[in-house]
Structure formats: structure tokens, C-alpha cells
Amino acid sequence: MRPISTHWADIAATRIIAKKGNKDLYVLASGITPSGQVHVGNFREVITVDLVARALRKLGKKVRFIYSWDNFDTLRKVPKQVPQRDEYSEKYMRQSIARIPDPWGKAETYAAGRMGLFEDELSMVGIQPEYLYQEARYAAGLYYKLVKEALENKNIKYFETGIEHGTITALIENDKFEITSLRSDIKTDGRHAEIKFTTDWIKDAERRDFTINSIYADIDGNLFDPFDGKNDLANGLIKFVGDPEKRIKEDYLRILRYLRFFALYSKNEHQLEIKKIIKKNIVGIKKLSSERLLDELKKTYNSNCFVELCKVEFSYEIICAVFPEFKQIQLFKKLNNYTKNNLYSLDFAFFLSLLILDNTDNSDYFFYKFNISKKNQKRIKLIKELYFGKKQIIKFNSQNLWKIFYFNGKQGLVDILNYKIFTSKKLDKNLVNHINYFKNKEVPKLSITGDDLIKNFGIPEGEKVGEKLKEIENIWINNNFKISDKNLKKILEN
């Protein structure tokens, strides 16, 4: 398509059509943050887009011209013209301009005052775009949908971890980034919350559990700390936001979260009032799903604070009440230096085995209650079989260990050795040496196959091949994974 004129806007319009093709609708957009005084640069940007929109319409095209007001942004610099500038800056810096008052008193908010002036000026010269107010769109819960679209456009994987609450987790090179929306609670039942989206940082902060979890930071590292969480963190204080009992009744998982944060950051003892409130509301834990309980336990383990948690009698009692299946939890009060230092280098499945295994069906009930994966069930059941079953292994000599290694693999052997180490009163350094030794070994492999017996030794196809192969394997295993030609010949001749 040849341009209808040499005017730059007409040329731009024809280029847009050539690049995008004939569309039912062309969308053009502009926008700014209404943070300062209106100036010629603001007009230049919007007029530029408006002229291209007009050029497209002259060509018979339908155009949507959007002007985005990013009025949810924060106040980062106070213009010189603002009355009582220093005082205004001290009071409202880094707060949303849609939430702070207009310093000239001509509008309800700072953003509304700047937007009103600009829109009036544009209207005077005949420019009337479709205005989008991002603060209102954010409050309506529209941002998370746009976030999904943006991630999809960049081929970034994401999980709708809490989409009903505007929360999406993006996965980039195995790192997780949680993207969420400001919200306030409308209704809670101790398990679920009915929310509404908001643009008010205070409202979002008010629904959080602890003061140290209600600290916000902008991209420049400037803090917004409405409940003085920074000082609480520095002083080792784990304080609920507002009424502790109300916070707990909103979500009973906060009982366990309180214990985790206390173990990680507290420099003090549990407050008597907090202990009373938790004991009073501990029954509410029953409302929670097993998945959420197990996830919180995993977070506690991954935070390397479970041992510290068990050292505090109150925390220990609450964990025992929440998880009555932890029959062996007392182990974590008696760990030696080696087990203390190496506990968190092991994985969560092994950690569970230390807590739940005994000579009853306790572990089976735990598997069912907490929906433990088949893979992890198999690992834990193997340990139980060897320590509490009929095939109990008592001697950890080289021959026995090689057999365990062969039949159960490297993971199985290491699990068994570690279990022995963690459940023994004293450290057996030989067991540690065995772990280090087998970590560098490969599982032995019998070099003779069924095909070899048929092709090279004349064994007829059928059950006989399997019987002979099993016999060979048994002798090979009991002879430290070696078999002589003489023994092989003897087996094949019988």
C-alpha cells in the first residue's frame, strides 16, 4: 500500500497495516504515571499516538486508542510546586498516588488531581482517548490475568498456585517467582478465605500473620513497614498483626507457621498469652487438609529449624499434638553432633522415616492420611522391613551391605545406614565410612544372561533357563559377586 501523503503519521499508518495486515481493529496505546506537573513531553507522546490513530481512520480502519493512567504507582519524587513539600514528602513518599491526598486540595487524591488537569487539556484540543485507570483495574483483579498472558507470550512456565487470590508462580531456570496481588479478607473460616482485591497496601498488610511478614520493598529497596516488622525482626520478636487469636482463627495453619518462625528468628521465650491462645485453638488444626499440614512440615524441615523447634518444650508439645503419628520424635532431642550437622543434608522422605517408623502399622496410617507418594512409601517400607520386620538385619558387615546394595540399590543402602546412625545412641564411624564407600560404587551386574545359557551352553528355552540363571545368581552373590568357571560348569551340568 502506498502512503496517501508524505506526512509521517500517514506513513506510519501504512507501515502498521503492512506489518500487521488487515485487522478488524487496530489498538494503539499510550500512558504515563500522573506523578508530576503536566508538561509538553506528556502532550507530545499522546498527540503522536493520536495523529497515527487519525491517519488509520482516514484509511477506513477501526481504531481503539487507549491511554493508560498508571495511577497505582508510588510517589517517588515530590514536585517543587507542591505546597509544604518537605512535610508532604515525609508523610507520603513511596505510597500509591491513588491513595494520598491532593496537596492543592482540588481533587480527592494526588493522582486524580494530575489526571483531571491533563484530561481537560486534551479535551480542549479534541483528543479523547479511552482512559484506563490501572488502580481500578488492579482492584478488580484484572492484573493476574494479564500476568498469565505476559508469561505465556514469553514462553515462561507458571503454576496457578492460588489463582483465586491472584497468585501465580513463574518458573525460570528452576527458580520460582511468586507473583501476587494486594487483597483484603472478606470472610474466613480457619481454612479458606473469601477475598477482594485492593490497591491499599495497609489493607493487604492487615491480613498478614506476623509483623515480620508485613514488610514491603520497592524495586529500589525502600521499605514500607506499617507494623514495625523490621524492628521486631532485629529484636527477635515474633508478633502477630493485630489480635493473635483473630489471626489464628482466620487460618489455623498459622499455629505451625508461628512455631517455625519462632524457631528461626526468636530471641525470646514464648509469651504466656500466646501459649494460652494456641492451646485454646489447637483443635482448629483438624479443619486443615493433610496436604497443607505436610507442606508446612516440609517448610519447617527445609528451613533447618526442626531440631531447634523440638528443643523448646511448648513447640515440641504442639508438634506432637498436631502430628500424633510422630512416634519417634524424641530422637530429635538426642541427636549427636554428627546427626545434627547432617540431618538437613538428607531429604524429606528420610526425615519422615525417622519420625514415624516403629513395630506397629503407624507408618501405614501416616501414608494414607498424608497421601505419601508410592515412591517414598517404598523407601520407608524398606527401612521398616529391615529394622522391624522378620528379615531384620542386625550385622552391618561388608557381605550383608553388598547384598543390600545389590537388591535395593544405592539409595536403599544409604537410607538403611543413615537410619542406623540416627537411631543409635553413639556414633559408629564405620557406618559413616560405609556410606562414603558405597556412594562411589556401582551396583554389581551379573555378566551372564539367559541368552548366553541358550546360545553358548545349550540350555533349552523355557523354565529351565530361569532356574539355572537364578541358581547362578545366588552363588555369584554369596561369593562376593564372583563365580568361577568350575562352579558355573557344575551348575550347568546338573
Task: Summarize this structure as a short list of keywords or feature phrases.
494 residues; mainly alpha; Rossmann fold; three-stranded parallel sheet; three-stranded antiparallel sheet; 23 helices; flat
What can be said about this structure in brief?
With 494 residues, the chain is mainly alpha-helical.
Explain what the structure shows.
The protein is mainly alpha-helical and 494 residues long. Among the domains are: 8-137, 3-Layer(aba) Sandwich (Rossmann fold); 324-442, no CATH class; 450-493, no CATH class. It contains 23 helices and ten strands. A three-stranded parallel beta sheet has the order 1-2-3. A three-stranded antiparallel beta sheet has the order 4-5-6, covered by helices on one side. The protein has a two-stranded antiparallel sheet with strand order 7-8. Helix 2 links the parallel strand 1 and strand 2 (63-69). The chain is flat, with a radius of gyration of 34 Å. The N and C termini lie far apart (92 Å).
Overall shape: it is flat
- Intertermini distance: 92 Å
Major sheet: 3 strands, parallel
> Could you tell me the number of beta strands?
10
* Content of β-strand: 5-15%
Low-confidence stretches: none
Give a topology summary.
Layout: H1 8-20, E1 26-32, H2 40-58, E2 63-69, H3 85-92, H4 110-124, E3 130-133, H5 134-139, H6 143-153, E4 157-162, E5 167-172, E6 175-179, E7 183-188, E8 193-197, H7 201-206, E9 216-217, E10 223-224, H8 229-234, H9 244-250, H10 254-265, H11 272-281, H12 290-302, H13 306-311, H14 313-322, H15 337-342, H16 348-356, H17 362-369, H18 374-388, H19 398-423, H20 429-439, H21 450-457, H22 463-478, H23 485-493
Parallel strand pairs: 1-2, 2-3
Antiparallel strand pairs: 4-5, 5-6, 7-8, 9-10
